[in-house]
Amino acid sequence: MIHLALTFDETPEAASELHRSLAAWLRRDERLRRSTRLVEEPPPPGALGGLATAVELVTAAGPVLSAAVGAFGYWLGQRMTGHPISFAVTLADGTSRSFTADRRDRELVLVELERFVRREQAGQAEAGTGPTPDPDSGVGPGAEPGPGSAPGPASPTIS
Predict the structure, then answer these.
(1) Which pLDDT tens digit goes with each residue over 63-122?
(2) Is residue 135 part of a domain?
C-alpha cells in the first residue's frame, strides 16, 4: 500500500480549513474518493468538532497517487491568493519533505512533489509490496482530467 499524509503550515484553524477543503476536492474524483481520509483531532469538551490536522491518501494503485498529485496541484493553484502556501508531505516510511509554493513557482513545486511521491512508488515496486509505476497510465500531471476533476492541466508544484 502507498500511504502519504499532507499537512499545511498555517494557524491550526486555517490549516484545518485547508485540510477540509482539500479532502472534499479529492473526494469529488471517483478514483480518489476511497483513498482520501481526513485526519481530525478529538473535539475539546463542549466543542462540536475537532480540527482537521492532515489529509491522508492510502492506495494500492500508483496511477491513483499520480491522479491525487495532479488534483492537488490544481486545487493548490485555486487557493493561492497573493501569499505562498506551505505544506509538508510525509511518506509511509516517515520521510517528510516541506514545500512552499506561490503563483510564480507552483509548477516547479509540483514537479518536485511528483518526484518525491514517485520515490514511494518506486520503493514499493522494488520491495515487491506495491504496484510498479506505470508512466504510460495517462494519469498525473498533464493528463486529461477524469470525471469530477477540474478542467485544465493538473500538475503539482513544489519548492
Answers:
(1) 787 788 888 988 998 887 778 899 999 988 899 999 999 888 888 998 999 889 887 666
(2) no
Instruction: Give a yes or no: residue 150 inside a domain.
Output: no
The answer as to whether 114 is a domain residue is yes
Continuous H helices in the chain: 12-27, 62-79, 106-127
For cell 477543503, what's the residue? 21
Residue span of the structural domain in which 14 resides: 2-127
pTM over 0.90: no
Place of cell 499545511: 8
* Per-position b or e across 126-157, b if 16+ CB within 10 A of its CB: eeeebbebeeeeebbbebebbeebbeebbbbb
- Whether the CB-CB separation of 96 and 89 falls below 8 Å is answered with yes
Report the Cα–Cα distance between both ends of the chain, in Å, rounded.
26
Q: Is residue 22 included in any domain, yes or no? A: yes
Q: By three-state DSSP, how is residue 99 classified?
A: strand
Q: For residue 102, what are the contacts with CB-CB under 8 A and spacing of at least 6?
A: 80, 83, 84, 85
**Tally of domains in the chain:** 1
- Kindly list the distances between the CA atom of residue 76 and the CA atoms of 42, 69, 146, in Å, as whole numbers in the listed order: 27, 10, 18
